[in-house]
């Protein structure tokens, strides 16, 4: 072990990875996941879906274009930690306003660099996601394992990242009013709806059906978010109460919650899908979309039978469910992120489908 190392990562299975800390210096127990994106570390760091997770970036140089004020996905990042091969603290981007380390420090997020991220990624791929402690270099392995074992697995992530009161994002000459249920919503989803003529009212995750009906929405959107979808019972019940009353569109966690509300099952993937390069087949058109993804759970394809949901998209890497719909109720959802920025633009049509569904509902009202 060289003296230049001042931090280390200890996995619950006993492996140690030595590196150098940046950002906040606190200890953290997190679930380890990896992301294969070549760009977009600011969007990853500020995506609420990464709450309680330490993200291993497979691209080797991180921090080189800094942080820009306009590109956050949430105002207060809640990622558990960031693990990189090489951290660059001298950005060469005319738009940058702060460094990545400054943002991590401001939000009490620990980071570690000089890690062999290729070895760590292979370990996650082969053995699955595991928990780990990001700690000081002098912490004994036995003590680190005790701290990991003594840290409960959280089940309240959505309640922590959701807004505490409703807020509004309006646009000029709007045509539709959308209520977005915030389970950890990315700001670019709101921007994508605004760009298509929607005024958006963002409400807390535990808002009930009566409150949403009182807002008279043209459509309801269910956002992405962290954690196990089975923990988010209020939103599952909300879908059951509102389906058939107004068009409903869900992304990522919202997709899983819609599936659970209709009676399907979800399960945890071995290491999840995270990155901007997942091929997804649209079963209606036969087209292949290159998608951006971030999730640990998936919908069980076999459990869709008899639910009233139709399979619309599949992942070509592992044949997992990527999209479902119920035409009768004007409900549809996808597992991936059509709003992802930066990232593939192949899937922007899904927002247009939501607009079309709201137009049709207005005509039949």
From TrEMBL:
InterPro entries: Anth_synth/Amidotransfase (IPR050472), CarbamoylP_synth_ssu (IPR006274), CarbamoylP_synth_ssu_N (IPR002474), CarbP_synth_ssu_N_sf (IPR036480), Class_I_gatase-like (IPR029062), CPSase_GATase1 (IPR035686), GATASE (IPR017926). Its EC number is 6.3.5.5. Gene3D superfamilies: 3.40.50.880, Carbamoyl-phosphate synthase small subunit, N-terminal domain (3.50.30.20). The active site is at 252 (nucleophile), 337, 339. Residues 1-176 are annotated as: CPSase. GO terms for biological process: 'de novo' pyrimidine nucleobase biosynthetic process; 'de novo' UMP biosynthetic process; glutamine metabolic process; L-arginine biosynthetic process. L-glutamine binds at residues 49, 225, 227, 253, 256, 294, 297. Pathway: Amino-acid biosynthesis; L-arginine biosynthesis; carbamoyl phosphate from bicarbonate: step 1/1; Pyrimidine metabolism; UMP biosynthesis via de novo pathway; (S)-dihydroorotate from bicarbonate: step 1/3. Keywords: Amino-acid biosynthesis, Arginine biosynthesis, ATP-binding, Glutamine amidotransferase, Ligase, Nucleotide-binding, Pyrimidine biosynthesis. Pfam families: CPSase_sm_chain, GATase. It catalyses: hydrogencarbonate + L-glutamine + 2 ATP + H2O = carbamoyl phosphate + L-glutamate + 2 ADP + phosphate + 2 H(+); L-glutamine + H2O = L-glutamate + NH4(+). It comes from the Bacteria. One of its GO terms (molecular function) is ATP binding. Residues 5-135 form the Carbamoyl-phosphate synthase small subunit N-terminal domain. Composed of two chains; the small (or glutamine) chain promotes the hydrolysis of glutamine to ammonia, which is used by the large (or ammonia) chain to synthesize carbamoyl phosphate. Tetramer of heterodimers (alpha,beta)4. Belongs to the CarA family. Small subunit of the glutamine-dependent carbamoyl phosphate synthetase (CPSase). CPSase catalyzes the formation of carbamoyl phosphate from the ammonia moiety of glutamine, carbonate, and phosphate donated by ATP, constituting the first step of 2 biosynthetic pathways, one leading to arginine and/or urea and the other to pyrimidine nucleotides. The small subunit (glutamine amidotransferase) binds and cleaves glutamine to supply the large subunit with the substrate ammonia. NCBIfam families: CPSaseIIsmall, PRK12838.1. This is Carbamoyl phosphate synthase small chain. It comes from Candidatus Pullichristensenella stercorigallinarum. The lineage of its organism: Bacteria, Bacillati, Bacillota, Clostridia, Candidatus Pullichristensenella.
